[in-house]
Amino acid sequence: MTSTPRWFSENDENHSQWYIDRFREMAAQGADLAGEARLIDAMAPRGAHVLDAGCGPGRLGGELHQRGHRVVGVDVDPALIAAAGEDHPGPEWLVQNLAELDLAPREPFDLAVMAGNVICFVAPGTEPEVLAAVARHLTPDGVLVVGFGMGRTLTVDEFDAHVAAAGLRVEQRFATWDLKPWTADADFAVSVLRRA
């Protein structure tokens, strides 16, 4: 098992800047980049404390901040965190590896979200540690919402095994961030997790 996240081991040195530029260009063209944020906003209490785990360049956390939530965004890539701070002022943006996440002494989070295939970019074999580390930062009734595409690095069955190993359970699953029903042939999964 390697401790290097796939984000680094499976991409070249220019990938981070390409990713930043891609979302900046999409935003400039008026693309709808708030789909995940609409769901998280609907699930969270007003003014919720939200953890954007694997926040990338900050589009989701930035949108949730604009909607009145108190957001902390964490990503392993310093370039993405720098872009998040530049493009989306307001949330707190931090560089940390999710497998070793430690945000003490901050108050627990009402909700955490891992969008954008974050679970597929962690180091191979660390998926249960990542899920458990993020869940440790939640309030007792807090939820973790994880979205990822099929055929990247995980099947749904493998993901569910990681969820169970992390001491969590799947409460709900959808095929999209706009809540289309889950089916076995869906190409994406959005899973709502709680403590087992």
Protein described:
By secondary structure, this protein is α/β, with parallel strands linked by helices. Helix content is 35%, strand content 24%. The chain contains eight helices and seven strands, in the order αααβαβαββααβαββ. A seven-stranded mixed β-sheet has the order 3-2-1-4-5-7-6, with helices on both faces. Helix 4 links the parallel strand 1 and strand 2. Helix 7 packs across helix 8. The longest helix is centred in the N-terminal third of the chain and has 14 residues. The two termini are 26 Å apart. The relative contact order is 0.15. The mean pLDDT is 95.
The number of strands is 7
SSE order, one letter for each helix or strand: HHHEHEHEEHHEHEE
Strand order within the widest beta sheet: 3-2-1-4-5-7-6
Q: How large, in whole angstroms, is the Cα Rg?
A: 15 Å
**What is the overall silhouette?**
globular
Structural class of the secondary elements?
alpha/beta
Strand content: 15-25%
**What composes the largest sheet?**
7 strands, mixed
Mean pLDDT, all residues: 95
In terms of quaternary structure, the protein is single chain
Number of discrete helical segments: 8
Cα distance spanning the termini: 26 Å
